[in-house]
Design a protein that fits this description.
This protein has 2 domains: 194 residues, Periplasmic binding protein-like II (D-Maltodextrin-Binding Protein, domain 2), CATH 3.40.190; 211 residues, D-Maltodextrin-Binding Protein, domain 2. Strand 4 and strand 5 form a beta hairpin. The protein has 17 helices and 9 strands. The chain is of the alpha+beta class. The strands form 2 sheets. Strands 1, 2, 3, 6, 7, 8 and 9 form a 7-stranded mixed beta sheet that branches. The N terminus is likely disordered.
Length: 428
Amino acid sequence: MQLKNALRAATAMSLIATGGAYAQSLTIAIVNNGHMINMQTVAEAYTAETGVELNWVSLEEGVLREQVTSDTATGGGQYDIINIGMQEAPIWGAAGWIEPLNFTADYDVDDILPAMRAGLSHEGTLYAAPFYGESSMVMYRKDLADAAGVKVRDNDSWANIKNAAAAMHDPDNGVYGACLRGKPGWGDNMAFITTVVNSFGGAWFDADYRPTLDTAAWEEAINFYVDLLGNYGPPGSEGNSFNEILALYNEGKCGMWIDATIAASFLEVDGVAYAQSPNAGNPVGANWLWAWAFAIPAGSPNAEEAQKFIEWATSKEYVQAVGNHPEFGWGSVPTGQRASTYEIPEFQAAAGFAAAEMAAIDSAAPEATDLKPYVGVQFAAIPEFPEVGIAVAQEMAAALSGAKSVEDALAASQAAADAIMKEAGYYE
């Protein structure tokens, strides 16, 4: 009833503004993760109330980025609404690729967490609305850790993380000490790897935007990553990203997973505990900051109706709709986007991960520093980064699989990144 009332109010405002006209359908490109899949069910009420058909194009993360980037950059017009994140939103907004968002007062944009608003804006204008936000943290099986006699602490040392993974590692019984991203992609393996590199004191670029992948910090971090996952991870880790590891974890096969805080909503095994991301001593860069958000490609003929849908899908009312939905409930609401969500008693009771998630989001530090000249934790907010990140991601996957040595993979990464940045005109 609450959802229908909200929809009726939004519908009335929309009809006044548009003279009674509705787009017949909207085509929406989304990443194929749990919250987005749930939304397709919850949004049946939106169609029932407005008559707007919603055509979902659900894609694996890397494929989504490739297709959405190509279509938006060329004005292809394939989608009315697209899933993008903090790497793209400010850059694409500045370039005029996506429309600025302007919501009604009832939307309460000030309720959006400041880190999410800032990361999805350019010069104070919001270009994408967060469906959910995240940082990264350790999710581990406390029952396995206790049985092995090890502890996992907030902001633990990487050495202790490796010791804990080794102690929990029991491949004969189908348990792997550490399940970590290895699938190549700037938002796949490189999201995790970059936070490791940051914590070891490394960065993607120096102050002149020259790549720094040939530094000691990168070599130490990548050797650590390859050793940890090679010795205590599941076979074929170079093919695993978020969805693959979530499935492994829920099958009871992972002792520890360091990944997006949003994963906690979908963990189904018992004995899970949470800790803030490990660090090698650098106070900045141990945990990432991201939001999967909705944006409207510039020039969309259905921009007005697209904005109405985005306002609904990222609203307080949507959170209530998921929490009260018979298939989902309060442990499955999208999190990390609105402060008000964390004040809902039903959510607090259902979400044992909420405090750890918020601590991670609050402690993330995407601003430029003396260490890194760019905005971003697990990415660099420059237009060339996706190309650089994809090239390096392939090399890191080769190192993880054993097809290349770490030394050779980093040398090839440095050469590829250098060529891309030179061609872009950062230096000669």
